[in-house]
Amino acid sequence: MELPFAESWKIKMVEPIRKSTREERERWIKEANYNVFQLKAENVYIDCITDSGTGAMSDRQWAALMLGDESYAGATSFFKLKEVITRLTGFEYVIPTHQGRAAENVLFSYLVHEGDIVPGNSHFDTTKGHIEGRHATALDCTIDEAKDTQLEIPFKGNVDPKKLEKALAEHADKIPFIIVTITNNTAGGQPVSMQNLREVRAIADKYKKPVLFDSARFAENAYFIKTREKGYADKTIKEIAREMFDLADGMTMSAKKDGIVNMGGFIATRREDWYEGAKGYCIQYEGYLTYGGMNGRDMNALAVGLDENTEFDNLETRIKQVEYLAKRLDEFGIPYQRPAGGHAIFVDASKVLTHVPKEEFPAQTLTVELYLEAGIRGCEIGYILADRDPVTRENRFGGLDLLRLCVPRRVYTNNHMDVIAVALKNVFDRREQITRGMEIVWEAELLRHFTVKLKPAGK
Ligand code: F0G
User: Fold this and answer.
1) 405 with 77: CB under 8 angstroms?
2) Which of 126, 261, 298 for mutating ligand 1's site (highest number of atoms within 8 Å of CB)?
């Protein structure tokens, strides 16, 4: 008999979590203005709001913390981190930052100007924010197939080469670079194939434009290339990652995801001009160039985390857990972005809460219902997160409206996945009775989902 699959680690330290009553949760979510970002984490039972900075570090990472060099300039921790990044990516220049959006801020301060257009595949919200905040346009060139949640294709995060080529043909002079997000978070943690990265590179070369990877989940992307793309089964994750980065000029990284640290990020590039152009902004916004917003100890832990999480076993354990949750949802017929993504399951709220009008934000409504049901915190990746159109100020209802259930790395067991699946099933079973959604009481102009205040519609 074939042995069943099990985790590639064992548990050395635990953190208690607490259940609550529905009555308590009704009070807490009301106090939080029906916005899960405003809940106290202690009032959450299973926290799937993000996989960012919420992973469990390994014993080797904790050991590395103790050896952190906290020197202001020239710390050994920086050189350790730089060595690992250069080895994995081939990028010679490294600027540490305190997290991914800080890397965006530093690099885009140099590269993005008013009136620019930055084409890419579903820019993440902070990436979009850093582009739009500079009065430039984030142009989404994701393949149309990504919008059909029930379509099962292996690389649903891909850039549509036709859309990209059209953008370049029409606006080349306004385009500072092309950005490819690996994996494509907003489209459901969906990977981008090596073939597609090669196509993007060819188009970029034709128009002499650089390519930037938003690399928050690059290791998960490499895992999908290994397991889904022809010709990669026998390559190691590290070999695949290197081949991916060979197709880019540089990367921004939120190390809180595939670096498995609680805080950290960086820019890495092979272009001296990018490094020279961005480094002053690092000093201005983040800190001196050999720490840029990170502690020495955190750079040490990140160096180990990057090395560990570009090993197959670690990634297999993770992706199989996300797949496990997906299989449980399949049993109950709950629709989600198929196939299961790398870091999360994205439930298709518009197919669940069919009676809630889009103006009342179905995915946000489902997020609140799931919290009320069992204290599980997911988050909306949908119409609220999409913000208003910067020109017309209308809500943007053109994209998907999803409830994202992130799975933190090395944190929960499959028993927790079972609780999530059954809680969602209970909401799913009473979906016909849910006819009203949420109404906005107050919202910020940009990145409104973090601070939006809501109330139940019509009440
Ligand atoms: N790029 C992608 C693809 C991301 O998913 C994120 C963050 C960032 C950039 C920004 O990085 O948080 O370190 O500043 N995503 C988190 C999430 C917050 O929940 O998906 P950061």
Assistant:
1) no
2) 126
Beta pairing partners, 324 = none
**CB contact at 8 A, 114 and 124:** no
pLDDT in tens, 419-459: 999 999 999 999 999 999 999 999 998 889 999 999 999 88
Residues 82 and 69: their CA atoms lie apart, in Å, by: 14
Q: pTM for this one? A: 0.97
CB atoms within 10 A of CB 417: 24
**Does the beta carbon of 98 sit less than 6 angstroms from any atom of ligand 1?**
no
Whether residues 255 and 321 share a domain: the answer is no
Which CA distances in Å does 245 have to 23, 86, 193, 251, 252? 50, 10, 13, 8, 12
Would the CB of 186 count as within 6 Å of ligand 1? Answer: no
Ligand 1 site, residue 215, Cβ cutoff 6 A: no
- Is 276 in the same domain as 227? yes
Give 120-168 pLDDT, tens digit per residue: 999 998 999 999 999 999 999 999 999 999 999 999 999 999 999 999 9
**How far is the centre of ligand 1, averaged over its atoms, from the C-alpha of 4 (Å)?**
33
Q: Are both 211 and 343 inside the same structural domain?
A: no
Domain that holds residue 114: 59-308
Residue stretches of the chain with pLDDT short of 70: none
Count of C-beta atoms within a 10 Å radius of residue 263: 18
Where helices occur in 286-409 by DSSP H, the ranges are: 296-308, 312-332, 349-352, 362-374
Closest-CA residue to 252 (of 104, 32, 34, 38): 104
- Ligand 1 atom with minimal separation from the 265 CA: 13
Q: Please identify every residue annotated as catalytic.
A: 72, 124-125, 214, 216, 257, 449
Report the candidate in 353, 237, 403 with the shortest Cα–Cα distance to residue 306: 237
User: Torsion angle of alpha carbons 159, 409, 124, 40, nearest 10°?
Assistant: 160
Give the count of domains, the chain.
Answer: 2
Taking the C-alpha atoms of residue 124 and residue 126, their distance in angstroms, rounded to an integer, is: 6
Top mutation candidate among 37, 47, 48, 52 for ligand 1, by most atoms within 8 Å of CB: 52
Same domain, 348 and 443: yes
Closest ligand 1 atom to 254 CA: 13
How far apart, in whole angstroms, are the C-alpha atoms of residue 217 and residue 56? Answer: 16
Question: Does residue 155 sit in the same domain as residue 261?
Answer: yes
Closest residue to atom 16 of ligand 1, CA basis: 52
At which residue do the structure tokens 């990140």 appear? 302
Is 50 a pocket residue for ligand 1 (Cβ < 6 Å)?
yes
